[in-house]
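step=encode ok
step=design start
structure_in=
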């Protein structure tokens, strides 16, 4: 616990015990398929699989999520379409539903603070939102973990719960760097953790990158485990973790 493994997530999950993770929270590479050599997002991973390769890879990962997740655990999955690969996001979601034990419980819209970089296309809209898919096992659709609170009962005795919208506003990212130009957002991760997990829960990020999920888990008193193939990003993330764990002086 509270460790990032410098290896492929498939290798990590194959070694994990079954039913040990409370929640998977991650943002995979989007497979944007850009051909411009200047548009490199990661120091090691090449974001250029074919659509079929990417889908097959994702299905393997989701079937391993099923192995490591506890009963009623969920997968919080942030994925978006690339400007030159607009179809893959929907194809991969459809295949997850068809070929894994998971179904969609919710889709959350994440509105970023700004839309940088601005779109230079004459006909496609500038994107300021991304999508967060909440997956649960099909047989746990009515029981998966969420922190919604009961507020009353109606006249027939049916429980009424607080109204939480499927719309989150949060910072774009935790600043890009030479190792990762598509970093995650601590503000976003914290809000998701507050909604779907409890203190002491064990969170797994299969694409830990520069450590944003780990950073948010420490702030929110959650435990974490992560996988990241880049040694340099692991080292970067571990520096962030050590800094976050230092006692705060007031």
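sequence_out=
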């Amino acid at each position: 616990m509270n460790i990032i493994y410098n290896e492929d997530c498939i290798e990590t999950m194959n070694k994990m015990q079954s039913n040990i993770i409370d929640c998977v929270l991650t943002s995979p590479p989007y497979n944007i398929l850009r051909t411009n050599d200047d548009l490199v997002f990661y120091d090691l991973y090449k974001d250029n699989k074919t659509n079929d390769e990417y889908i097959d890879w994702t299905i393997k990962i989701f079937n391993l999520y099923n192995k490591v997740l506890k009963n009623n655990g969920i997968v919080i999955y942030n994925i978006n379409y690339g400007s030159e690969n607009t179809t893959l996001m929907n194809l991969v979601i459809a295949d997850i539903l068809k070929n894994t034990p998971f179904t969609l419980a919710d889709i959350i819209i994440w509105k970023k603070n700004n839309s940088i970089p601005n779109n230079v296309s004459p006909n496609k809209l500038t994107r300021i939102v991304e999508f967060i898919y909440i997956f649960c096992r099909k047989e746990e659709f009515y029981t998966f973990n969420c922190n919604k609170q009961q507020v009353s009962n109606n006249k027939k005795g049916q429980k009424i719960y607080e109204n939480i919208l499927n719309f989150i506003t949060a910072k774009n990212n935790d600043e890009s760097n030479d190792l990762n130009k598509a970093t995650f957002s601590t503000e976003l991760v914290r809000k998701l953790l507050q909604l779907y997990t409890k203190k002491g829960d064990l969170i797994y990020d299969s694409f830990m990158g520069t450590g944003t999920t780990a950073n948010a888990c420490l702030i929110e008193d959650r435990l974490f485990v992560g996988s990241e193939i880049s040694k340099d990003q692991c080292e970067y993330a571990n520096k962030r973790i050590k800094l976050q764990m230092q006692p705060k002086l007031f």
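step=design ok
step=annotate ok -> Strands lie at 3-5, 21-26, 69-79, 102-112, 129-137, 150-153, 159-161, 167-170, 202-205, 223-227.
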